[in-house]
Amino acid sequence: IAVVETHRNQGIGRQLIAGLQAVVPRISLSCDLLNPARRLYLRAGFEPWSDDGRTLVWPPAVPSNESIERG
């Protein structure tokens, strides 16, 4: 997800994430640890999934009868 720099900090990214979360059962994404958008993803309920912390998943809790492929 990318928002043009001149349109950042206006809630557009939050709206995009919320829209995805409303229709997609699981989301994973990669985000550099120093990327300011990481705060947005964490506020939206994403949690680190990979050992290096760059892969984030939502929803964070995986029921025991469900599995996720780690890539």
Can you walk through the features of this model?
- This protein is of the alpha+beta class and 71 residues long.
- The radius of gyration is 13 Å and the shape is globular.
- It contains two helices and three strands.
- A three-stranded antiparallel sheet has the order 1-3-2, with no helix packed on it.
- The chain has helices at 12-23, 37-43, and strands at residues 27-30, 47-48, 55-58.
List the helices and strands and how they pair.
Elements: H1 12-23, E1 27-30, H2 37-43, E2 47-48, E3 55-58
Antiparallel strand pairs: 1-3, 2-3
Structural descriptors:
alpha+beta; 2 helices; 14% strand; 71 residues; 27% helix; three-stranded antiparallel β-sheet
Distance between the termini: 19 Å
The number of helical runs is 2
Number of strands: 3
Helix content: 25-40%
Q: What Rg is obtained from the alpha carbons, in whole angstroms? A: 13 Å
Structural class: alpha+beta
The string of secondary-structure elements, in order, is: HEHEE
- The oligomeric state of the chains shown is single chain
Uncertain stretches: none
Describe, in short, the structure shown.
It is built from two helices and three strands, in the order αβαββ. The protein has 71 residues and is α+β, with helices and mostly antiparallel strands. The protein is globular and about 35 Å long.
